[in-house]
Amino acid sequence: xxxxxxxxxxxxxxxxxxxxxxxxxxxxxxxxxxxxxxxxxxxxxxxxxxxxxxxxxxxxxxxxxxxxxxxxxxxxxxxxxxxxxxxxxxxxxxxxxxxxxxxxxxxxxxxxxxxxxxxxxxxxxxxxxxxxxxxxxxxxxxxxxxxxxxxxxxxxxxxxxxxxxxxxxxxxxxxxxxxxxxxxxxxxxxxxxxxxxxxxxxxxxxxxxxxxxxxxxxxxxx
Length: 222
Ligand code: G3P
Hints:
Blueprint: E1 2-6, H1 10-19, E2 22-26, H2 29-33, H3 40-50, E3 55-58, H4 64-75, E4 81-86, H5 89-100, E5 105-110, H6 113-122, E6 126-129, H7 131-136, H8 141-154, E7 162-165, H9 171-180, E8 184-187, H10 189-196, H11 199-216
Bound molecules: SN-glycerol-3-phosphate.
């Protein structure tokens, strides 16, 4: 499984890439707005220059021609940019149009297997089921990830679409996404920081140092 960062924060993206574990980024209008009143194009281009892989960013129009026009513009911003198109009826048609033009689409706001299927059939490069938001309404978000993985696997010749497990809220979601076979999970920075933490690791590091210094002397290094 690959890990993307779900943020538009430059410092967090730089850190994730420096760690060597983040190979892509996903943003949406809410995440971009969190960064203040920014120049959208400039921000996306900066993210694209930092990240080695795909950077998804979303259109704002809701009608087909508006989505396609915005996507065409966004696609010129950087080589690794991917356009997020919502899983609406208009989104299916826009995805189909953009796929014919070789513009990569991340079919986003997916809450059902049928939406994911239609996104894939229309030619989306990625589909993004929103796990946490399904959990929020009492449904089982990760079950949808499993279903999409299983169904896409049955049609390897016709479905090339990759799944991005999105709306990830905690480290357990990352474990479950990996177990379910999601090709990608996109995680908030906070979750990335939580993934590495374990109290026994901290205790272990302190104990090793204590034992070393007891015998070798205080402040003695290698
Ligand atoms: O990648 C989708 C994500 O940004 C949505 O997450 O936590 O707002 O449901 P959330």
